[in-house]
Every structure is written in structure tokens, then in C-alpha cells.
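tool_call predict_complex ligand=iron/sulfur cluster
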Amino acid sequence: MKPSLTGIVLEELADFLQTHGAPSYRAKQITDWIYKKRIASFDAMTDLPNELRAQLTAEFDTPKIEVARILGSKDTTQKFLFRLCDQNLIESVLIPASPALYGQPSDRRTICVSSQVGCAYGCKFCASGLDGWTRNLDAGEMVQQLIEIEKICGEKIDNVVFMGMGEPLANLKNVLRAIRIINAAWGIGIGARHITISTSGLAPQIRELANDTTQFRLALSLHGATDEVRGRIMPVNRKYPLKVLLEACDYYVAKKGRMTFEYILIAGVNDSDEQAGELAKIARHLAAKINLIPYNTVEGLEWSRPSRFRQEKFQSFLREHGVTATLRREKGHDIAAACGQLRLQTRIGDPSRPGPLVRAATV
Ligand code: SAH
Ligand code: SF4
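tool_result ok
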């Protein structure tokens, strides 16, 4: 497979032009076509010489992700089902104004991007992992989710979270490339503080990110404050138990400044005062803010969210112990509900062939 047009990085393009004897100013011309004018074919880049257009066409693929289905309406959370060139299906979500998200009052439209088809990490509560892992997305396929959604909704996206299908840190190289494109002035131009990677806790990659110069925010899906509880719902905790994970987080915070915790509240599993106490200790140690997310029920799975009373008690407990914790309130604005665990509903394609599960949503 050739690399995709929307995964092109300016510096590499400059190298490509040099090897092909074309002037370097063409690089910016080409990225303008791709990321500013959003033209998906080299043939349409009318101010480039024919020869160069042909050379580019030979080297890069034009994007082939297409919308298979859209759920929701313009004013609410919208879910987009995309079909990739190999017929695999992924989901992206568009969430309108979400003032509470990561504490940025200016948030307008947030897109939740998938980084893989399926997920290998098999968290017990998550719909994305139920069907296993199929493949990584390349950077172009990640950037393309954003470009397509902006095209459809006709508005600019302000905030990008890698909280769709997949574990971004298991596809780190491509995710970092996508972030460079999303962040760059020559690319999509979204500020680094408005780009968040969420991880289930791959300790070695968290260390690697600490040393990487790409700018973004990091959110850790903690969901359990002891090995016993976390291990029960997140198999990744066996590979990277809390001690190992939190040491990597220490290292990350020392280098990069801060990280956020996500903590889904699952009734009778991780919502006790004891867990809140342990969580407060961990958060204080890392000076991390916590986003509490009431669990969203997934069809066929046994878990449920605690009562509102219990959710608020958990939050108050954290606050009383000196930790900043937000609790998501509005259903339609629930980013996790939108991204990680949409309800399993349809299996598209030939039912006799094992294919990706389509997590269609109830909005
Ligand atoms: N693999 C990464 C990013 C994708 S999941 C990660 O695990 O962080 C994005 C977020 O959605 C994670 O915090 C995940 O735990 C959460 N999530 C998954 N299923 C959920 C559900 N049913 N209800 C609420 N949050 C869920
Ligand atoms: Fe994968 Fe994240 Fe879902 Fe866990 S929560 S299965 S890591 S997508």
C-alpha cells in the first residue's frame, strides 16, 4: 500500500521534491492543497507542473475513506461510520460545544478519532475490544476522519481526542505523525493543547512519549486505583501493574508537566470510598486532574453505572481529599459515551465472513 496523501508531512515532501529535482517552495504549495484547500487528488493541483503531479501520483495514494453511515443530528453528538479502502469499518464522533471537557472553556467542536480497527487490549467493559484487533490505521486515515467530518458538518473542529476505537500507544508512530499534521501550521493547525491522546496505560510507550518532542495532552484511563480492581477490568494491568505504570507516569510528568486521569465509574466495581481514597493518593502524587465518567452500558456486558448519588459521593470524596475531579453530567456531551463504547448493534457486510463489529449508537 502506498502512503496516503493526507499523511504527508511537509519536511518529507521537501525531501521528495529535492530527489525529483523540483523546487522546495512546491512543498508548501502541495500541503496547502491537501490540508487547506482539502483537494484530494494531485490532478486537481493545477499550479503544479504535470510531471510533478505524475510523480506524486506514483508515490502517494489519494484517501479512500468514505462515510457509510451517520447517526445523530447537527446539534447533538454525531457518530460517523467510515469504510476504509480495505472495507474495514471505523467510527469517529463529533461532539458539539463541551465546556467541561478538559477544562477548556472555549471548546466548541471535539472530534473523537479512531486509531486502530478494533483493539487488542480487551478491557472487560469496552465494546471496542470485544471483536479483537484487526489492524492499525495509518496517519492519513486518522487525519482523513477529521477532514471528512469538517467537510460534512461545514464547521471547524477545535479539539481532537484519540479516544475512538483502538489503543493509540499501540500505534504510536502513526499517531504521532497524525498529531504532527493536525498540529502544524502547514497542516490542520489545531493547537497542541487541544489534542489529547488517551491510553489504557502502556508504560514503555508513556516513557517514550515523555522524550518525544511532539506536543499534545495525555490522558490515562485508570479506572481502578489498586491492582486488584484494575486487574479485574483491564487485562493490560497484568502486563503493566500500577507500580510500573505509575513510575512511567512520574517520569512523564517530570518531563512534560502534567497528565489527566479518566476514571469510569462502574457500580460495585471501582466506586467504593476505598477506591476513591487510593485514587486521591495517586492523583495528588502526580498532581493529576480526574475526569469521572459514569459507565455507559454496553449490550451484552454485565456492568452498569452507579446511582447519581454514588457518583457525586465519589466526586466529593476526591475533592475533600484535595483532588480536582469533574463528573460528566450531560448525556449528549458525554465524550466517553460517544467514543469508547458505542452500543454494539450491527455487523455490516457479509454476515458469513468474520468482519469488524459496527458499534452503532443510540444518541
Ligand atoms: N484505548 C484508549 C483510548 C480509547 S477508549 C484508552 O483505553 O484510553 C477511550 C475511553 O473510553 C477510555 O477511557 C475507555 O476506558 C473509555 N470507555 C470504554 N468503554 C466505556 C464505556 N462503556 N463507558 C464509558 N467509558 C468507556
Ligand atoms: Fe482498547 Fe481502550 Fe477499549 Fe481498553 S478501553 S479495549 S484499551 S479501546
